[in-house]
Amino acid sequence: IRDKAADPLKIKNNFCKLRQITAGFLKVKKNGEVITIHFPENVKLEALISMIQRLPVGKKALVFVEFIESGDMIAEALKELGITYLRLYSKTKNKIDVKKQFVEDPKIKIFLVNITSGSSGLNLQRTCNYTFFYESPVRFMIRRQTIKRTHRGGQLYTTYCTDVLVKNSVDLRV
Known about the structure:
The protein contains six helices and seven strands. The chain has helices at residues 8-23, 43-53, 68-81, 95-104, 115-118, 140-147; strands at residues 25-30, 33-38, 61-65, 85-88, 110-114, 130-133, 160-163. The strands form two sheets. It has a five-stranded parallel β-sheet with strand order 4-5-3-6-7, sandwiched between helices. A two-stranded antiparallel ribbon has the order 1-2. α4 (95-104) links the parallel β4 and β5 (110-114).
């Protein structure tokens, strides 16, 4: 990275791969095909699930992810534990209905949101006051917009925003 002649695209790709590893997976090309390697142990996912399980009764939370693969892993873990959730990402068919269902259904505890799909336009300050970043947005303005999904005028409760970080990793540099 310190090499002035370093290729910016290579730096960006390496940074992205480091973030993937920290999240618990790695996408690689093998024989021209992209494959995903999942790591057998994922302390970051375990930490997130532990925090979700400790949410106060009746409280809801937003979980923001950068990578669709992270969302897939979290969704699978929530499903295995019987924790009700909805997901908002590029494959979500009717985003307005999904948001409305999250707001209105008291049984749905988690709204799993891809940052690019839900960092703006969601007004959830009267619905939940817990926000978790599984992967923090790299750009400050995106992070600020994302936090404002719960921390804004009209919020009736203290807002909690938590970054799930892996010690000694690229997470701490973001």
